[in-house]
Design a protein that fits this description.
The complex is a heterodimer of chains A (69) and B (362). Chain A has 69 residues and is an all-alpha fold. In chain A, 90% of the residues lie in helices and 0% in strands. The termini of chain B are far apart. The chains are: A mainly alpha (69), B mainly alpha (362). Chains A and B meet through helix 2 of A and helix 9 and helix 10 of B.
Chain lengths: 69, 362
Amino acid sequence: MTGATFAAIGAGLAVIGAGLGIGRIGGSAMDAIARQPEATNKIQLAMIIAAALIEGAALFAIVVAMITK
Amino acid sequence: MKTLKHSWPFLIFIFICSVIPVYAQEEHPATSEKGDSAENKETIFNASEFIVEHVSDSHEWHILTKKNGESVALYLPVILFDREKGLSLFSSKKLAHGHVHNGYMLAEEGDLKGKIVSVNDDGTVNEENIPLDFSITKAIVGMLAAVIIGLFIFISMARSYKRSGIGPPKGLQSFLEPVILFVRDDIAIANIGIHKYEKYMPYLLTVFFFILINNLMGLVPFPPPFGASVTGNVNVTFVLALCTFLIVQFSGNKNYWKHIFATPGVPFWLLPIMIVVELIGLVSKPFALMIRLFANITAGHIIVLSLVCLIFIFETVAVAPVSIAFVIFMDCLELLVAFLQAYIFTLLSSLFISMAMPEEHH
């Protein structure tokens, strides 16, 4: 198991975390839109912002993986 | 003449481009050191090398490599400052393929790989005296082009406002005015507050449009000033994050510093740890800004390049329709990411600025 393998595994784990997080955000956003369709735009905006922030965290891990490889 | 006055940004850009000599028809040295020139084996396509070359910065702008090994490239100027030799300015063609020019060469291996190093008389690399590199590289040309485009758009917009006064927008104004109002209302006023936002509007608008224009230019692969991944270069995003950091520190009021060094409501024996934690938080927020922008944009470029490389890995044209379809889809996603990352950078900057001016709440 070389360092590159560990880096790849680390990046994969980070993506699992990001996927779970963004999935939960999407789910709650859909529940909220179902409850109150007139607030769709605001909810969508908030969802996209939260998704971008979570992606930022996941990309931290990818950057670290790229550096250590 | 009025027309010349309006076209001065283009003239400046053309002047800069004309100073960069274009050297086409350049021969690669005959073959590799292993001899074997009679066989002329085709090298296996190395996808990761291809991708890294396209995503990273370089001293030359590689346009294409012809079948017989000649490469067509724009050789950008190299500007070095050395304590011994002073200022040097020459085209990067002189450093291509490991040639040594004026005692400088591009290091091929070791810690300083890819950087320009000074070479001693006996051929060894001079590790103590690394020259300061102020060269115009690919990313800098891309950034200058984005700056010129941005200046042209906004100065012409300002001029048309000056001429016709405040009224219903027309032309380019009608496209940009809603965006500027969006930055003002939803980002600046919403976070910083209606009394203090005006000081920061120039910075927020500049950073928003700078990141946006550079992101969009990075998506267009061709012709030369486009296709340089400026915001995908960690040095550029570092400077942007540094600007935000400095603005936040310089607009901190007394409460802000009190919250960092003497967080209210914390028992005194916990204070040393709290100070360290707060200081780390101070630095980590702009650091996150830097990494987020850099990683998002670079990841997008790498994905698109990998999908295009699929065609060359499988070595058949039949993969092309699938690959191009994926590339188009990823490019649309990248377009969304371009706007989103510009918005998030500006939003978080304004949020940090607002956090630098907390109100008393005793």
